[in-house]
Task: structure prediction
Amino acid sequence: MGRPSNIIVVTEAYQKLAESFYQYQKRLGYVENSYKARFNYLNEFLQWLEQQGLLDITQIQAPEINRYYSYISSRPSKKDGGALSQKTTHSHMRIIRDLFEMLFRSGQIPINPCSTLNFPYPKISEERTVLDQDEIKQLYQATETAQERAILSLAYGCGLRVGELVKCNIEDIRLREKILIVPQGKGNKRRVVPMSSGVSKDLANYYYNERDELTKGRDFKPNQNAFMLHSRGGRMNKDTYNKHLKKLIERTGNLEMKEKQITVHSLRHSIATHLLEQGIAVEQVRMFLGHSQLETTQIYTHISQKQLEDLIS
Result:
Protein backbone atom coordinates (compact mmCIF):
# COMPACT_ATOMS: atom_id res chain seq x y z
CA MET A 1 0.00 0.00 0.00
CA GLY A 2 3.01 2.25 -0.31
CA ARG A 3 3.58 3.02 3.37
CA PRO A 4 6.84 4.92 3.85
CA SER A 5 9.40 3.11 6.01
CA ASN A 6 10.12 6.19 8.12
CA ILE A 7 6.51 6.52 9.31
CA ILE A 8 5.59 3.55 11.46
CA VAL A 9 2.13 3.16 12.97
CA VAL A 10 2.25 0.65 15.83
CA THR A 11 -1.33 0.62 17.10
CA GLU A 12 -3.18 -2.35 15.62
CA ALA A 13 -6.46 -0.44 15.45
CA TYR A 14 -4.77 2.30 13.44
CA GLN A 15 -3.15 -0.24 11.12
CA LYS A 16 -6.62 -1.67 10.42
CA LEU A 17 -7.97 1.84 9.94
CA ALA A 18 -5.30 2.48 7.30
CA GLU A 19 -6.37 -0.69 5.51
CA SER A 20 -10.02 0.43 5.57
CA PHE A 21 -9.02 3.81 4.23
CA TYR A 22 -7.09 2.07 1.44
CA GLN A 23 -10.25 0.25 0.34
CA TYR A 24 -12.27 3.45 0.67
CA GLN A 25 -9.84 5.28 -1.64
CA LYS A 26 -10.26 2.55 -4.25
CA ARG A 27 -14.02 2.95 -4.14
CA LEU A 28 -13.63 6.71 -4.62
CA GLY A 29 -11.78 6.01 -7.86
CA TYR A 30 -8.18 6.79 -6.96
CA VAL A 31 -5.65 4.60 -8.71
CA GLU A 32 -2.54 3.03 -7.25
CA ASN A 33 -0.08 5.72 -8.32
CA SER A 34 -1.77 8.23 -6.02
CA TYR A 35 -1.89 5.98 -2.93
CA LYS A 36 1.67 6.57 -1.72
CA ALA A 37 1.40 10.29 -1.06
CA ARG A 38 -2.06 9.91 0.46
CA PHE A 39 -0.83 7.14 2.78
CA ASN A 40 2.18 9.21 3.75
CA TYR A 41 -0.22 11.92 4.91
CA LEU A 42 -2.60 9.50 6.64
CA ASN A 43 0.15 7.64 8.48
CA GLU A 44 1.76 10.85 9.64
CA PHE A 45 -1.55 11.85 11.21
CA LEU A 46 -1.99 8.43 12.86
CA GLN A 47 1.59 8.49 14.15
CA TRP A 48 1.03 11.98 15.56
CA LEU A 49 -2.10 10.74 17.38
CA GLU A 50 -0.07 7.91 18.91
CA GLN A 51 2.57 10.36 20.09
CA GLN A 52 -0.17 12.42 21.74
CA GLY A 53 -1.53 9.32 23.48
CA LEU A 54 -4.73 9.47 21.42
CA LEU A 55 -5.38 5.85 20.49
CA ASP A 56 -9.14 5.83 19.78
CA ILE A 57 -10.03 7.48 16.47
CA THR A 58 -13.72 7.73 17.45
CA GLN A 59 -12.81 10.06 20.31
CA ILE A 60 -10.95 12.59 18.16
CA GLN A 61 -12.72 15.93 18.05
CA ALA A 62 -12.23 19.33 16.37
CA PRO A 63 -9.69 20.65 18.94
CA GLU A 64 -7.34 17.72 18.30
CA ILE A 65 -7.64 18.16 14.54
CA ASN A 66 -6.89 21.87 14.89
CA ARG A 67 -3.82 21.02 16.93
CA TYR A 68 -2.66 18.73 14.14
CA TYR A 69 -3.29 21.50 11.63
CA SER A 70 -1.04 23.80 13.68
CA TYR A 71 1.60 21.08 13.79
CA ILE A 72 1.56 20.30 10.06
CA SER A 73 1.50 24.01 9.18
CA SER A 74 4.66 24.68 11.16
CA ARG A 75 6.75 21.55 10.74
CA PRO A 76 9.68 21.77 8.29
CA SER A 77 9.60 20.03 4.93
CA LYS A 78 11.32 16.65 4.93
CA LYS A 79 12.69 17.41 1.46
CA ASP A 80 14.49 20.71 1.94
CA GLY A 81 13.91 21.73 5.56
CA GLY A 82 11.87 24.77 4.56
CA ALA A 83 8.24 25.46 5.41
CA LEU A 84 5.57 23.32 3.78
CA SER A 85 3.68 25.05 1.00
CA GLN A 86 0.08 26.04 1.62
CA LYS A 87 -1.00 23.54 -1.02
CA THR A 88 0.83 20.67 0.69
CA THR A 89 -0.60 21.64 4.07
CA HIS A 90 -4.08 21.71 2.59
CA SER A 91 -3.52 18.29 1.00
CA HIS A 92 -2.56 16.87 4.41
CA MET A 93 -5.76 18.18 5.93
CA ARG A 94 -7.88 16.98 3.04
CA ILE A 95 -6.79 13.41 3.84
CA ILE A 96 -7.93 13.96 7.44
CA ARG A 97 -11.25 15.25 6.16
CA ASP A 98 -11.63 12.20 3.89
CA LEU A 99 -10.78 9.90 6.77
CA PHE A 100 -13.48 11.27 9.05
CA GLU A 101 -15.94 11.39 6.18
CA MET A 102 -15.36 7.65 5.75
CA LEU A 103 -15.90 7.02 9.47
CA PHE A 104 -19.07 9.12 9.46
CA ARG A 105 -20.53 7.47 6.37
CA SER A 106 -19.87 4.00 7.81
CA GLY A 107 -21.58 4.90 11.10
CA GLN A 108 -18.44 4.57 13.22
CA ILE A 109 -18.80 8.15 14.49
CA PRO A 110 -22.08 10.07 15.03
CA ILE A 111 -20.70 13.45 13.94
CA ASN A 112 -17.89 14.36 11.57
CA PRO A 113 -15.53 16.56 13.65
CA CYS A 114 -14.22 18.18 10.44
CA SER A 115 -17.65 19.50 9.47
CA THR A 116 -17.18 22.71 11.44
CA LEU A 117 -13.53 23.24 10.50
CA ASN A 118 -12.15 25.32 7.66
CA PHE A 119 -8.70 24.80 6.22
CA PRO A 120 -8.09 27.62 3.72
CA TYR A 121 -7.27 26.54 0.21
CA PRO A 122 -4.25 28.43 -1.18
CA LYS A 123 -5.17 31.27 -3.48
CA ILE A 124 -4.33 30.68 -7.11
CA SER A 125 -2.49 33.68 -8.45
CA GLU A 126 -2.26 32.88 -12.15
CA GLU A 127 -4.59 34.73 -14.49
CA ARG A 128 -7.37 32.57 -15.91
CA THR A 129 -8.40 33.59 -19.40
CA VAL A 130 -12.10 32.99 -19.98
CA LEU A 131 -13.90 33.41 -23.28
CA ASP A 132 -17.51 34.53 -23.22
CA GLN A 133 -20.21 32.41 -24.85
CA ASP A 134 -20.31 34.56 -27.98
CA GLU A 135 -16.57 34.09 -28.47
CA ILE A 136 -17.01 30.33 -28.17
CA LYS A 137 -19.71 30.48 -30.88
CA GLN A 138 -17.32 32.43 -33.09
CA LEU A 139 -14.69 29.70 -32.71
CA TYR A 140 -17.17 27.01 -33.73
CA GLN A 141 -18.30 29.11 -36.69
CA ALA A 142 -14.65 29.46 -37.78
CA THR A 143 -14.09 25.70 -38.06
CA GLU A 144 -13.54 24.27 -41.54
CA THR A 145 -13.04 20.59 -40.74
CA ALA A 146 -14.69 17.97 -38.56
CA GLN A 147 -11.42 17.65 -36.67
CA GLU A 148 -11.43 21.31 -35.69
CA ARG A 149 -14.96 21.02 -34.31
CA ALA A 150 -13.97 17.83 -32.47
CA ILE A 151 -11.03 19.63 -30.84
CA LEU A 152 -13.36 22.34 -29.54
CA SER A 153 -15.85 19.75 -28.36
CA LEU A 154 -13.20 17.85 -26.41
CA ALA A 155 -11.58 20.92 -24.87
CA TYR A 156 -14.69 23.04 -24.31
CA GLY A 157 -17.65 20.65 -24.56
CA CYS A 158 -16.01 18.03 -22.32
CA GLY A 159 -13.85 20.42 -20.28
CA LEU A 160 -10.74 18.27 -20.58
CA ARG A 161 -7.35 19.32 -19.26
CA VAL A 162 -4.58 19.58 -21.86
CA GLY A 163 -2.93 16.39 -20.59
CA GLU A 164 -6.27 14.59 -20.80
CA LEU A 165 -6.71 15.75 -24.39
CA VAL A 166 -3.31 14.37 -25.34
CA LYS A 167 -3.96 11.01 -23.66
CA CYS A 168 -7.50 10.57 -25.01
CA ASN A 169 -7.86 7.21 -26.78
CA ILE A 170 -10.53 5.75 -29.05
CA GLU A 171 -11.78 3.38 -26.36
CA ASP A 172 -12.29 6.28 -23.95
CA ILE A 173 -15.07 7.75 -26.09
CA ARG A 174 -18.41 5.91 -25.85
CA LEU A 175 -20.55 7.52 -28.53
CA ARG A 176 -23.56 5.29 -27.96
CA GLU A 177 -23.70 6.05 -24.24
CA LYS A 178 -22.66 9.69 -24.84
CA ILE A 179 -19.91 9.56 -22.22
CA LEU A 180 -16.16 10.10 -22.24
CA ILE A 181 -13.93 8.19 -19.83
CA VAL A 182 -10.88 9.89 -18.34
CA PRO A 183 -8.95 6.85 -17.02
CA GLN A 184 -6.30 8.89 -15.22
CA GLY A 185 -7.04 12.54 -14.67
CA LYS A 186 -5.21 14.83 -12.27
CA GLY A 187 -4.18 12.84 -9.20
CA ASN A 188 -4.61 9.70 -11.32
CA LYS A 189 -8.32 9.79 -10.61
CA ARG A 190 -10.79 8.23 -13.04
CA ARG A 191 -13.94 10.11 -14.02
CA VAL A 192 -16.84 9.86 -16.45
CA VAL A 193 -17.72 12.97 -18.48
CA PRO A 194 -21.21 13.26 -19.99
CA MET A 195 -21.38 14.45 -23.60
CA SER A 196 -24.16 16.54 -25.09
CA SER A 197 -25.75 15.41 -28.36
CA GLY A 198 -23.83 18.15 -30.19
CA VAL A 199 -20.48 17.07 -28.73
CA SER A 200 -21.20 13.42 -29.48
CA LYS A 201 -22.12 14.32 -33.08
CA ASP A 202 -18.91 16.36 -33.54
CA LEU A 203 -16.69 13.55 -32.27
CA ALA A 204 -18.49 10.94 -34.38
CA ASN A 205 -18.21 13.10 -37.50
CA TYR A 206 -14.44 13.41 -37.08
CA TYR A 207 -13.94 9.74 -36.18
CA TYR A 208 -15.96 8.27 -39.03
CA ASN A 209 -15.19 10.81 -41.76
CA GLU A 210 -11.69 12.21 -41.21
CA ARG A 211 -9.60 10.14 -38.82
CA ASP A 212 -9.13 7.23 -41.25
CA GLU A 213 -7.44 9.51 -43.79
CA LEU A 214 -4.98 10.67 -41.10
CA THR A 215 -3.92 7.08 -40.42
CA LYS A 216 -2.18 7.11 -43.82
CA GLY A 217 0.46 9.55 -42.51
CA ARG A 218 4.07 8.46 -42.02
CA ASP A 219 3.92 8.70 -38.21
CA PHE A 220 0.93 6.38 -37.85
CA LYS A 221 1.55 3.03 -36.20
CA PRO A 222 -0.76 0.01 -36.62
CA ASN A 223 -1.46 -0.12 -32.87
CA GLN A 224 -2.03 3.65 -32.60
CA ASN A 225 -5.20 4.10 -30.51
CA ALA A 226 -5.04 7.87 -30.04
CA PHE A 227 -8.39 9.45 -30.83
CA MET A 228 -6.97 12.71 -32.17
CA LEU A 229 -4.22 12.40 -34.79
CA HIS A 230 -2.09 15.13 -36.32
CA SER A 231 -1.53 15.53 -40.07
CA ARG A 232 1.24 12.89 -40.11
CA GLY A 233 -0.86 10.32 -38.27
CA GLY A 234 0.74 10.48 -34.82
CA ARG A 235 -0.86 11.35 -31.49
CA MET A 236 -1.66 15.04 -31.31
CA ASN A 237 0.36 16.85 -28.64
CA LYS A 238 -0.25 20.00 -26.61
CA ASP A 239 1.48 22.33 -29.06
CA THR A 240 -0.52 21.02 -32.01
CA TYR A 241 -3.81 21.49 -30.15
CA ASN A 242 -2.83 25.09 -29.45
CA LYS A 243 -1.80 25.66 -33.07
CA HIS A 244 -5.25 24.55 -34.24
CA LEU A 245 -6.88 26.88 -31.73
CA LYS A 246 -4.70 29.79 -32.84
CA LYS A 247 -5.80 29.25 -36.45
CA LEU A 248 -9.45 29.36 -35.37
CA ILE A 249 -8.89 32.58 -33.44
CA GLU A 250 -7.24 34.15 -36.50
CA ARG A 251 -10.17 33.14 -38.70
CA THR A 252 -12.72 34.78 -36.40
CA GLY A 253 -11.22 38.20 -37.16
CA ASN A 254 -12.04 39.15 -33.56
CA LEU A 255 -9.27 41.59 -32.59
CA GLU A 256 -10.12 41.47 -28.86
CA MET A 257 -9.87 37.70 -28.86
CA LYS A 258 -6.53 37.86 -30.66
CA GLU A 259 -5.13 40.08 -27.90
CA LYS A 260 -6.08 37.64 -25.14
CA GLN A 261 -3.67 34.98 -23.92
CA ILE A 262 -5.86 32.09 -25.07
CA THR A 263 -4.72 28.46 -24.92
CA VAL A 264 -6.60 25.18 -25.20
CA HIS A 265 -6.77 25.13 -21.40
CA SER A 266 -8.68 28.44 -21.55
CA LEU A 267 -11.58 26.49 -23.07
CA ARG A 268 -11.78 24.40 -19.90
CA HIS A 269 -11.88 27.57 -17.79
CA SER A 270 -14.59 28.88 -20.08
CA ILE A 271 -16.95 25.89 -19.87
CA ALA A 272 -16.58 25.91 -16.08
CA THR A 273 -17.62 29.55 -15.91
CA HIS A 274 -20.49 29.11 -18.40
CA LEU A 275 -21.95 26.13 -16.54
CA LEU A 276 -22.02 28.11 -13.30
CA GLU A 277 -23.53 31.10 -15.07
CA GLN A 278 -26.33 28.82 -16.26
CA GLY A 279 -27.12 27.82 -12.69
CA ILE A 280 -25.50 24.39 -12.58
CA ALA A 281 -24.65 23.44 -8.99
CA VAL A 282 -21.00 23.90 -8.00
CA GLU A 283 -20.78 20.25 -6.90
CA GLN A 284 -21.98 19.05 -10.32
CA VAL A 285 -19.43 21.27 -12.05
CA ARG A 286 -16.75 19.93 -9.71
CA MET A 287 -17.53 16.37 -10.77
CA PHE A 288 -17.66 17.34 -14.45
CA LEU A 289 -14.21 18.97 -14.27
CA GLY A 290 -12.70 16.30 -12.04
CA HIS A 291 -11.64 18.68 -9.26
CA SER A 292 -10.64 17.00 -6.01
CA GLN A 293 -11.48 20.06 -3.93
CA LEU A 294 -14.70 22.01 -4.15
CA GLU A 295 -12.65 25.14 -3.44
CA THR A 296 -10.97 24.80 -6.85
CA THR A 297 -14.34 24.88 -8.59
CA GLN A 298 -15.52 27.78 -6.47
CA ILE A 299 -12.77 29.93 -8.01
CA TYR A 300 -14.93 30.04 -11.13
CA THR A 301 -17.86 31.42 -9.16
CA HIS A 302 -15.69 34.45 -8.40
CA ILE A 303 -14.84 34.87 -12.07
CA SER A 304 -18.49 34.55 -13.00
CA GLN A 305 -19.55 37.10 -10.39
CA LYS A 306 -16.92 39.55 -11.63
CA GLN A 307 -18.25 39.23 -15.16
CA LEU A 308 -21.77 39.90 -13.94
CA GLU A 309 -20.58 42.99 -12.09
CA ASP A 310 -18.88 44.23 -15.26
CA LEU A 311 -22.15 43.84 -17.15
CA ILE A 312 -24.23 45.89 -14.74
CA SER A 313 -21.64 48.52 -13.76
The longest strand covers residues 179-182. The chain has two domains: 12-105, 133-312.
